[in-house]
Design brief:
Elements lengths: L1 H8 L3 H11 L7 H13 L3 H14 L4 H13 L3 H10 L7 H14 L3 H8 L10 H12 L3 H14 L4 H10 L6
Helix pairs in contact: 1-2, 2-3, 3-4, 4-5, 5-6, 6-7, 7-8, 7-9, 8-9, 9-10, 9-11
Length: 181
């Protein structure tokens, strides 16, 4: 599996798929197999194939958070925020970072015009010395509400105060065009 991961990191998708097939040639296909197949298809922008594989992973391991998260992320990547929101809301276990899950819920609520639901999550976020989540949640809310300077203030404060964690939250603000890379 480490060979598959190395190949994926090098964006050698065809070879990664071949290594995956070799690794699972003698085994029953499991959720990990389908997840990796879905990730490879997603990287190649074969979204229907990725969705199919992520759904197969969920058939093998129903309602497992990390597999629901993969499907939700695929929908988010495609701009299908309503579908992504539905998947994120199904996640009940702790296999996905609670902060990242809540952040993605906030973003989906904002991007689907459900500002009230987004706001109810944002106001519950507590300031924490270990993570920039508070700042990015407030930045997303401010940007979506048209308060661009306030959004920039929160995002830049997070970037300056925290050595780690920015890479988890900041890219989504860049993807939405709210921040420059």
């Amino acid at each position: 599996m480490s060979r598959v991961q190395d190949l994926l990191g090098q964006t050698r998708f065809h070879q990664a798929e071949q290594a995956l097939e070799t690794a699972f040639a003698e085994e029953v296909k499991n959720e990990l197999y389908y997840t990796i197949k879905g990730m490879v298809a997603s990287k190649r922008a074969s979204f229907a194939e990725a969705e199919n594989n992520f759904k197969k992973a969920l058939l093998v391991a129903p309602l497992q958070g990390r597999y629901l998260f993969n499907l939700a992320e695929l929908y988010y990547l495609q701009g299908k925020y309503d579908k992504a929101l539905d998947q994120y809301l199904l996640i009940r276990d702790e296999s996905v970072s609670r902060e990242l899950l809540e952040y993605k819920l906030i973003l989906c609520y904002l991007l689907t015009g459900k500002a009230k639901e987004a706001r109810s999550l944002v106001i519950k976020v507590k300031l924490d010395a270990k993570t920039p989540y508070f700042y990015y949640a407030h930045a997303a809310w401010a940007f979506a509400d048209g308060r661009i300077e306030e959004g920039r203030y929160f995002a830049e404060t997070a970037r300056k105060l925290y050595l780690s964690g920015n890479e988890l939250f900041r890219p989504f603000l860049v993807e939405q065009g709210w921040l420059e890379n």
